[in-house]
Design a protein that fits this description.
about 35% strand; about 30% helix; about 150 residues
């Protein structure tokens, strides 16, 4: 990807088709619908969503809920063709900093077989907090991971 430095900005309704395309390719069996993303952006007062643009196009996104002093990453993904460029780490660092403005803890769920994501989360200080059985469907467990913010 040649071009300007990547930019992270708030997600807008006009971004949803591109975001949904990344979501569908990244999570084909559990992808959110356009309607879910639209509801998150327009109705959920606790939702905060961002996109990462590189070379003039959206290549990743991250969403979270902030409720009082707790935060949870609801979804995060990078387009397959853009992976390996550090974009996931940029989004995660941004999410931690954003959440840290008001929250003490940031948590997420990750598929037990998503080693690349777990390695990134561990690198960024996330700890294991348990397993959610069948979180992604029958026989598809998730690790719960969390990081304390503002230490």
């Amino acid at each position: 990807m040649v071009g300007k430095e990547p930019v992270i900005r708030k997600m807008e309704i006009g971004d949803l088709e591109n975001v949904h395309a990344i979501e569908s390719a990244s999570f084909p069996n559990t992808s959110w619908t356009l309607e879910v993303f639209l509801r998150e952006l327009s109705v959920n007062e606790f939702a905060h969503y961002f996109v990462l643009e590189a070379a003039g196009r959206i290549v990743g996104y991250c969403g979270m809920w902030l409720v009082v002093d707790q935060s949870q990453i609801t979804t995060i993904a990078i387009a397959r063709e853009a992976r390996g460029n550090g974009y996931g780490e940029r989004l995660l660092v941004h999410a931690k900093a954003y959440a840290g403005q008001s929250a003490d803890i940031l948590s997420l769920e990750v598929s037990v077989d998503n080693t690349a994501a777990m390695n990134l989360y561990e690198k960024e200080g996330f700890n294991y907090g348990g397993v959610r059985k069948n979180y992604y469907g029958p026989g598809k467990d998730a690790h719960v991971m969390w990081v304390k913010l503002n230490d």
